[in-house]
Amino acid sequence: MGTNEKIQLLLDDYEKASGQCINKEKTSMVFSKNVDEGLKTEIMQLWGGSSTQQYEKYLGLPPMVGRSKQRAFSGIKHRLWQKLQVWKRNLISQGGREVLVKAVAMSLPTYAMSCFLFPKSLCHELEMMMARFWWGNQTHGKKIHWARWEKLCAPKFRGGLGFKKLSDFNLALLAKQGWRLLTHQNSLLFRVFKARYFPNCSLFEAKIDFNASFVWKGIFSALPLLKSGCMWRVGNGRSIRVVQDSWIPGCSRDEVQGAMEHLNNEILMVNELIEERTGWWKIDVVRALFDPRLANLILKINICLSEEDSWFWTSERSGSYSVKSGYKVLQWEASQILGEGSRVLHIRDKGGLEMLTTFFVICWALWYRRNQFLYEKVVHPCSTVINNALSMQSAYKQVQVLDGVSKQVNTVLSWSPPPPGFLKLNVDGAIFPDHHKAGIGIILRDEKGDVIAACSKLEGDVASPEFIEATTLLRGLQFCAQWGVPKLVLETDCLILVNALQSQTTFLTDFAFLLNDISRMMRGFQEVQILHVNRLGNIAAHQLARNAWNVEDIVMWWGSCPSFVSQAVWLDKNNVM
């Protein structure tokens, strides 16, 4: 009774503070069989409510899930059955059935699956109901199933229909709840779960108790999926353990632990590898602790001591977890268990377009390495060959305009002069993977197309093409701020960067710190417009970026441009493509 009285005092305080009163007529209580009748009467008199045998559903979900999970979620199965019976009475084409299955049938359990882990038997029953509707007709309740449901759940480019496997979709939805716990550690939900289930460790190190709640069991089941794709983004390095955590792009946690077995039992934090005075890595310490490959990967990581360390999801450009990307990760992992034997064709059958493209790029790089050995007597390490191939593939993808994304922004096909009163800044980046360097090109022009200033600058090694593009934009803004430019039009051929700066979405990727710096710099101008330009409209900046390899640090031209850029500038000025 003492606990009930304290809860009632808290609710009384809430009523006084908010002005909202509890409706005691609608208050009901469920008691277990072990509660004494006298105690039941006292509690009901205290609360002014009534006793009931079971809870009513709230937002279609059971407030309490007992031992029988099938009975708790039977309402979802019944609602799906009712909809399927209505659809069967109508003349619906096969294409219409596909739309109904995807848009309606599979959306029915989505809300419940985002909160609870469904039994696999229930997922199987729901899938079989959808399959019978898909293969059946109006006169017969069932027809021959010419393909397994797993085959229909494959993507269309792999011969399926794109239906979802409900058990995997359930895990992807629950991983979203885990992502919220991971990234919102000041929330009440996180504090409650941490106090109850992992008070002395991190979320990924939590254990499951036999008496854990059904909600926590569901989130816990999705943690392996979340852990497989999450990585630390280095800020001040105080929250990241060097050996135990995943924080090096392009390197798994197991690889780091294998390379540093002598430190597996020690807790070494990443901030111990950072020089606080300069805000950069302790290069000698990094190269002494790690092998050359890992050391080079670490030295590519950008540091921002003013920011806290944070998590990001590696399968999304924005760095934020999405159910779509989580489901794709599960499908990819499932395809790796199929056991294709020793033939190479499984890359085509199970790898998808991305893996197939990577496979052929690496094949070309190996062939090129062979030619260099035969004709130039130069032997490159295999790790260098692989890194160069991946960098080349990433650079190629960077210059492609994606149909599904290009509609979000206005893409300029050729260079055009800025509006009156504005100056136009074109920027571009270039990567020199063989030399672990990068270059930036900047050119500022007025409304007549005349060059005000141009710049080529050599930068250090970078982790990704997006990173050097963001660095280039930041350097250009810094130069314009020094020159006192009031109104500016920015043009870059990096569509990802333009989308990131124009949208309100928070980016958590490796170049997110640069995006924050760019946004702060843009607020210092009277007016700034940022546009995406096609490669053909950014040739001058591209040539300046490629020229950065020929300079030691930085070269600038005032009131003119170098001879190797003059033709591109003339074509832009006269609008000739």
Q: What does the model show?
A:
- With 577 residues, the protein is of the alpha/beta class.
- Among the domains are: 52 residues, no CATH class; 95 residues, no CATH class; 57 residues; 164 residues, Ribonuclease H-like superfamily/Ribonuclease H (Nucleotidyltransferase, domain 5).
- Helices cover 47% and strands 11% of the residues.
- Strands 7-12-11-8-9-10-13 form a seven-stranded mixed beta sheet. Strands 1-2 form a two-stranded parallel ribbon. Strands 3-6 form a two-stranded antiparallel sheet.
- The longest helix is centred in the middle third of the chain and has 25 residues.
Based on the model shown, name its key terms.
seven-stranded mixed beta sheet; alpha/beta; 24 helices; single chain; 47% helix; two-stranded parallel sheet; 577 residues
Uncertain stretches of 5 or more adjacent residues? 337-351, 401-409
Q: What is the β-strand count?
A: 13
Strand arrangement across the biggest beta sheet: 7-12-11-8-9-10-13
CATH classification, class level of the domain at 410-573: Alpha Beta
CATH evolutionary superfamily of the domain at 410-573: Ribonuclease H-like superfamily/Ribonuclease H
What is the percentage of strand-forming residues?
A: 5-15%
Please work out how many helical segments DSSP would assign: 24
Q: What is the general shape?
A: globular
In the CATH hierarchy, the architecture of the domain at 410-573 is 2-Layer Sandwich
Main beta-sheet annotation: 7 strands, mixed
**Structural class determined from secondary elements:** alpha/beta
The overall pLDDT average reads 82
Relative helix content: 40-55%
Between the first and last Cα atoms, what is the distance in angstroms?
Answer: 83 Å
**The CATH topology of the domain at 410-573, please?**
Nucleotidyltransferase, domain 5
Radius of gyration: 30 Å
GO molecular function: nucleic acid binding; RNA-DNA hybrid ribonuclease activity
Pfam family, one: RVT_3
Protein name: RNase H type-1 domain-containing protein
InterPro entries: RNase_H-like_dom_plant, RNaseH-like_sf, RNaseH_domain, RNaseH_sf
